[in-house]
Amino acid sequence: MKYYQLIFFKILISINLFSQQKIGLVYNINPEMGYVFFKGVFKATPIIEEKVGTFNMVKFLEEELRKHDDIYSEVRFDFNFREVNQIGVLGYTKDIKNYLNQYCEKNNLDGVLAIVRNEYYRLSNPLQIYHNLGYNFGIATFSIHKNRAILYYNFIMFFYMKEDQSRSFIVTPSYKTHKFENQVYNDNYLLNNNQVMDYYLPVIQEILKSPLNKTFKKEIKK
Question: From CA 50, how far away is CA 36, in angstroms rounded?
C-alpha cells in the first residue's frame, strides 16, 4: 500500500511541475540592504557605507514567487548582463529580445525575472550620488538633514515572458524621503536606533511585492 501511495505522490508532483511556469531569477546587484552617510552640501561625499539589517532582496523575491502555485522559480548565475545592459533593456532592442529568447530556450525557461544595476544617468539625476556605492539599495542620511533619511533603490527589475516576448517593468530606479521626529544618526554617523529601518523595511518590501504580484498575475495567466 505504501508503495502505491509513493508512486501516486510522485505522479502528483510531476503533474504539478509540468503545469507550472518555470522562471529564472537573475541579478547583477548586491542583494543586501545598505546604509550610507553623506557629508557635504553641494558635493555630498559618502563617509560611511555598510550593510544594515538582514534583509536580502533575492531571498525575499524567492519567497514571494513561491506563493504562486503556478510558478516554479530558480536563481541562476549564468546570465550574461553584458548582453542585457540597462540601455538595451530600456530601448528593448532586437539584440536584447534575441538573447532573452535564446536564454529561455537553452535553459528550458518560460520567463526571466532580471534585476539590473543602474549604470546610466541623465544630466542632474539625483541618483548619481549612489552610483559607485557597494549597495544598490538602502538607506541614506545626510549631514545637512539630521532628521531626514532617504530610501534609495538604484536598479531596474523587469520580467520577460518567452511566449509573447514581452517585457514588463516591475521596479525602476527612484528614492523616497521621510522626515522623522528625532535625529536619525548619532555622533558616529550611524543610525540612531531602529526607527528608520522600522519605517522603511515595509516600504521596500511593498515596492518589490505589489508590482511583482500584479505582473505575474497578468503575464502568467494570459
Answer: 7
Output the DSSP codes for 2-39: HHHHHHHHHHHHHHHHHHSEEEEEEE-S--EEEEEEEE
How many other C-beta atoms lie within 10 A of the C-beta of residue 14?
10
CB-based contacts of 154, cutoff 8 Å, min separation 6: 117, 118, 127, 130, 131, 133, 136, 137, 173
User: Which tens digit of pLDDT belongs to each residue from 80-126?
Assistant: 998 887 666 777 888 889 999 999 999 999 999 999 998 877 777 88
Q: Which of 7-11, 92-96, 191-195, 198-202 has the lowest mean pLDDT?
A: 7-11
Taking alpha carbons only, the member of 69, 167, 153 closest to residue 113 is 167
How many angstroms separate the CA atoms of 184 and 193, rounded? Answer: 8
The more confidently predicted of residues 90 and 222 is: 90
Backbone angles phi, psi at 152, to 5 degrees: -115, 145
d(CA 101, CA 96): 9
